[in-house]
């Protein structure tokens, strides 16, 4: 126990010596760099030290909140975003980050409130309108969602996700032509947004337009090779087209990426195996 105590004292003393070598600006910079590299634990350590020095830094609380969110420590993230807003009531990004986290938690009414506050602090923020539009959509208020998503595109015509969510809403409403126009426009402004290809592929799959679905699924997987849902639907389509080896390979990839799908796919894969013999 005594050895452990001595080691602990030496460890924290070493950390203190390490931090003392740098200016506050450097410490914040290291935290920001670690966050950008998705090394969230390291980011939090640097930001903890910075906040001890600069106790009124809204930016530091906001960045530490994002780091906690990266670790799925949502309660600590909520607290830090809240503190950032207390320190700077006009901090648009902190309201957006708080709203985004509340959307993850399906707390759409609070998310809408925070996105609305973000818009009040910066009426030109295209992201605030887009995110509020998504929150409206998720809470079933599609007219308000369409309005906000449209405004977001007026402010920034390159927001591909705004086109994506407009497309999803129009699909819900049965306006297929307008939905497909929005998916196509989203791809035009950002050809690397794999979710647009996937959403359009899902529509084509559900309407038995398998050739078009395969093309979009191939694009989805090319951009994001870890999208298990794309492999799943492509596997179903290939199986229906009697391309059993390719179908089996895709379904096997689903299990590799998401092992808890094994039980669901076991029967179908065994059935495909018999056709490969």
Please name the defining characteristics of this protein:
mainly alpha, globular, 277 residues
Estimate the helix proportion, in percent. Answer: over 70%
Q: Sum up the overall morphology in one term.
A: globular
The number of E-state strands comes to 0
- On the 0 to 100 scale, the average pLDDT is 94
Sequence stretches where pLDDT stays below 50 over 5 or more residues: 7-13
Q: Over all CA atoms, what is the radius of gyration? A: 24 Å
Order of helices and strands: HHHHHHHHHHHHHHHH
Give the strand content: under 5%
Structural class: mainly alpha
Please describe the biggest sheet, giving its number of strands, its sense, and whether it closes into a barrel: none
Number of continuous helical runs: 16
Note the gap between the termini: 64 Å
């Amino acid at each position: 126990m005594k050895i452990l105590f001595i080691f602990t004292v030496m460890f924290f003393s070493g950390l203190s010596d390490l931090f003392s070598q740098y200016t506050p600006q450097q410490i914040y910079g290291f935290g920001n760099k670690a966050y950008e590299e998705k090394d969230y634990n390291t980011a939090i350590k640097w930001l903890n030290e910075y906040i001890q020095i600069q106790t009124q830094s809204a930016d530091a609380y906001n960045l530490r909140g994002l780091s906690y969110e990266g670790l799925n420590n949502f309660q600590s993230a909520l607290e830090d975003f809240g503190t950032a807003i207390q320190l700077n009531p006009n901090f648009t990004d902190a309201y957006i980050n708080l709203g985004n986290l509340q959307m993850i938690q399906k707390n759409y009414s609070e998310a809408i409130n925070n996105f609305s506050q973000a818009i009040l602090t910066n009426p030109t923020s295209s992201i605030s309108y887009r995110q509020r539009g998504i929150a409206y959509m998720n809470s079933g208020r599609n007219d308000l969602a369409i309005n906000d998503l449209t405004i977001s595109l007026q402010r920034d015509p390159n927001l591909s996700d705004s086109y994506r969510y407009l497309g999803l809403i129009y699909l819900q409403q049965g306006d297929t032509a307008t939905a497909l126009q929005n998916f196509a426009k989203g791809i035009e402004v950002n050809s690397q947004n794999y979710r647009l290809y996937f959403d359009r592929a899902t529509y084509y799959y559900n309407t038995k337009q398998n050739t078009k679905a395969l093309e979009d699924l191939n694009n989805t997987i090319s951009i994001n090779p870890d999208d298990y849902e794309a492999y799943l639907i492509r596997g179903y389509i290939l199986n229906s087209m009697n391309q059993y080896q390719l179908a089996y390979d895709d379904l096997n990839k689903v299990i590799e990426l998401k092992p808890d799908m094994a039980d669901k796919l076991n029967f179908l894969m065994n059935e495909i195996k018999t056709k490969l013999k």
